[in-house]
Amino acid sequence: MDRGPLLDSALHTAHSRLYSRRYSYPPESRLIGPIWGQQSLTPVTATLADKPTSLGVETLTELTLIPSASAIIDHARKLNTTYEIWRGPGMDGTPVVLLATGIITKSTNGKTGPMIQAYILRQDMKPIEAVNSGADVAICGDCPFRPIIAKQTGEASCYVNTGWLTGLWESWRAGRVPTISANELGIIAIELGMGIRHGAYGDPAHVPVSIWAALGNNRGTSYTHQWRVADIGLAQYAMASVQSVVEANEAHAAGWRTYRVDKENVGAGDGEVMCPEQTRGVQCKDCGLCAGNRIQAKNIVITPIDKRLKKQRAA
Questions:
Q1: Do residues 125 and 38 share a domain?
Q2: Measured by CB atoms within 10 angstroms of the end CB, which terminus of the chain is less buried, N or C?
Q3: pTM
Q4: CB atoms < 10 A from the CB of 187, how many?
Q5: Overall average pLDDT of the 286-303 stretch
């Protein structure tokens, strides 16, 4: 039987150890064969010596073994801090790839804190070339902060360092970035107690919802400007990025929680709260509010980037 990546190294894991691990969803969703569903690893079923074993929902005599989180993390340390998670067509058919960084070497982003960063890039073009030519539309859609749009509107443009991203893309194109599944990345995040930042660059709408679902419901951030045209299933994981109260109300009616840039300078309204990072210095890794419908919480309002920069320069 083809056991899939990393499975052999984990077969020694005792079932008691697996049961004792703390996951953000019931252990039976990982361990019972019929519930395995769309997970990418091939399950290996073994008869338990001390059968039957009760999982609280039914009595089983068999257990499906999966890689232990520690085995996956050990594997990560031996290889790299960056992984390919998925590749395929984006919303318009353009080939894109999802890369995750910050697994071992932590992100130094001051606002988010150390989170696993998930980047969505074109497969066929260097990020810096895509930005300069406007071809980043294939991964960023109609985001108003795309540099080519921001130059026309006077908006503050996206702050992502596309020079650094180009280096990441070149490593991937050269075959130096190993691959793990979204399910495996979710296990790593849980074990390390880290959130995942969906779309640290690129819009999460360009990746199938099933990939974000495979990461699990662990803490993380996610935002989409494509909420009008995206798969509504993405609302479970992502905030609708909006620029006005009218847009926010439209997104709410469609089933989204919102992340509103307060361009109208009206502050937080009913059902909204100002971003805790701005008001109390709480980093995203500790806040967890921008998680779509994974949690029930108020909608988020944030001061525009250009206004924040002016305040920082005046301080």
A1: no
A2: C
A3: 0.74
A4: 28
A5: 95
